[in-house]
Specification:
Helix content: 10-25%
Strand content: over 45%
Largest sheet: 5 strands, mixed
Number of strands: 25
Strand order of the largest sheet: 2-9-8-4-6
CATH topology of the largest domain: Immunoglobulin-like
Number of domains: 3
Order of helices and strands: HHEEEEEEEEEEEEEEEEEEEEEEEEEH
Structural class: alpha+beta
CATH superfamily of the largest domain: Immunoglobulins
Low-confidence stretches: 18-53
Length: 382
C-alpha cells in the first residue's frame, strides 16, 4: 500500500514539473515577442510601411460626389433654353480641384461655382442647353475633370424631348446645280404643330440672288400653314450660291427660324475649287494644287491654259474617276521668290457661254528658318 501511494505521488510530481516547464517556455516566447515589437520597427521598404502609407494617402484624398448626376428636363419647345444646376460635395479629406469641364456639343455651356472645394463643402455646376437646332429625344453629356484619383472623369447626363411648335419642311434648301439664265424655284412648308394661330411676319434672305415670297395655304383646313417660295434669280452669275433664310413668326418659342440654302449656278462648265490657295509655303518647296473642270455639254472642250505669275505652271491631265471632268494641276515652282503669290489661272474654251474661266491663285512664300528646319529633320530621323 505504501509503495502504491509513493508511486502515485511521484507521478503527480512529474506531471507538475512538465506543466511548469511548458508554462515557463510560453512566457519566454511572449516576452521575446514583446521585446521584438518594441525594438524592431518596420523598415521604410517593408510591406507594413507600404500598407500604412497607402491607407494614409487614401484617407487624405479628395472625393467628388454629385447629388444627382442625371437630369431629365422633360418636354420643352424648340428654341427655348434648358438651365439646370448640378450640386456636388467633396466627401474627401483634402481639397478638391476641378481641372476643366467639357460638354458633348457646343450648344451646352457649363459654368462652375468654384474650382477649389474644401473637404465637406459643396459646389455647383450650371449647365445651359440651347434647343434651337434640335427636335425629338436628346441626350447630352457634360464631363467634369478633377483631382479625385478614384473618379478623375465624372460624366453628367442631360436628357429630354424637344417639341416643335412651328415646323419647316424641308429644313435645308438644296438649290442644286442650275444652268445660268434658267433660275430655280423651291417651295417650303411652314406650319403650326400646336393650337397656335400661326402668322409669318416676314422672311429675310442673306443672299441678294435668292428671293423669298410666302402665302397662307388655304387648302390645309386642320393646321395653319404657309407656303414659302424660294427663287434663285435668272441673272445669278456662275459659281456657288449659299446663305440663310430667316423666318420671323408670332410664336414665342420660335420667333426666328433659320433655314440654310445652298446650290451652284453652272454653264457649260463647272470649276472646283473656285480659288487656288497655297497658304504659307517654305521657299524652295514645290507644291501642286488640283483643279477639276466638269463639262455639262458634250460639244464643249478646253482649248488652252494660261497662268500667272511666271513661277506657277498649269498642266491638264485626265481624271480617271470622272468621265466628263478634266483635272488641271497648278504647280508652284521651286524658284518662287519670297513674298505674296497673286495670280490667275485662265481656262480658255470653245464655249459661247464660258469662253474664258478665271480662277484666282493666291498664297505666300516664306524663307525657311535653318535652325528650326534642322531640329525638325533631327526629330524626324529619331
Amino acid at each position: 500500500m505504501k509503495r502504491f501511494l509513493l508511486g502515485k505521488i511521484c507521478l503527480i510530481l512529474i506531471i507538475c514539473a512538465v506543466f511548469g516547464a511548458g508554462l515557463l517556455f510560453n512566457c519566454h516566447k511572449v516576452s521575446i515577442a514583446a521585446s521584438n515589437s518594441e525594438t524592431n520597427e518596420p523598415k521604410p521598404g517593408s510591406d507594413n510601411s507600404e500598407a500604412i502609407k497607402t491607407e494614409s494617402e487614401t484617407a487624405a484624398q479628395p472625393d467628388i460626389s454629385f447629388i444627382n448626376p442625371e437630369h431629365d428636363f422633360g418636354e420643352i419647345f424648340r428654341g427655348n433654353k434648358v438651365v439646370h444646376v448640378y450640386k456636388f460635395e467633396n466627401k474627401g479629406k483634402s481639397e478638391l480641384k476641378i481641372d476643366k469641364v467639357r460638354s458633348s456639343c457646343g450648344c451646352t455651356a457649363a459654368v462652375i461655382s468654384s474650382k477649389n472645394i474644401e473637404p465637406g463643402k459643396f459646389g455647383e455646376l450650371k449647365v445651359t442647353f440651347n434647343t434651337q437646332s434640335y427636335n425629338g429625344k436628346v441626350s447630352k453629356n457634360v464631363t467634369v475633370y478633377s483631382n479625385d484619383p478614384d473618379t478623375p472623369k465624372h460624366v453628367l447626363k442631360l436628357t429630354g424631348v424637344v417639341i416643335e411648335e412651328v415646323a419647316v419642311q424641308p429644313k435645308r434648301v438644296n438649290i442644286s446645280k442650275v444652268v445660268k439664265g434658267l433660275g430655280s424655284t423651291i417651295n417650303l412648308s411652314v406650319k403650326s404643330l400646336t393650337d397656335l394661330k400661326l402668322k409669318i411676319k416676314k422672311i429675310e434672305s442673306t443672299n441678294k440672288n435668292v428671293e423669298v415670297n410666302f402665302k397662307k395655304n388655304k387648302d390645309n383646313k386642320t393646321k395653319d400653314e404657309y407656303i414659302v417660295t424660294v427663287a434663285l434669280k435668272k441673272d445669278t452669275d456662275y459659281g456657288r450660291v449659299n446663305g440663310n433664310l430667316f423666318i420671323f413668326t408670332n410664336s414665342k418659342n420660335q420667333e426666328k427660324i433659320t433655314v440654310p440654302f445652298y446650290g451652284e449656278v453652272i454653264g457649260d462648265f463647272a470649276v472646283y475649287p473656285p480659288k487656288i490657295s497655297y497658304g504659307i509655303v517654305d521657299k524652295g518647296r514645290e507644291i501642286a494644287y488640283p483643279v477639276f473642270v466638269t463639262a455639262y455639254n458634250k460639244d464643249v472642250k478646253i482649248e488652252r491654259l494660261e497662268v500667272t505669275p511666271e513661277f506657277v505652271e498649269a498642266e491638264m491631265t485626265e481624271s480617271k474617276n470622272r468621265k466628263k471632268t478634266s483635272k488641271i494641276l497648278v504647280s508652284l515652282k521651286k524658284n518662287a521668290p519670297e513674298g505674296k503669290i497673286k495670280g490667275e489661272l485662265r481656262i480658255f474654251t470653245n464655249s459661247k457661254k464660258q469662253s474664258q474661266i478665271n480662277v484666282p491663285v493666291i498664297g505666300m512664300v516664306k524663307k525657311v528658318d535653318k535652325a528650326s528646319s534642322k531640329k525638325v529633320k533631327k526629330a524626324a530621323e529619331k
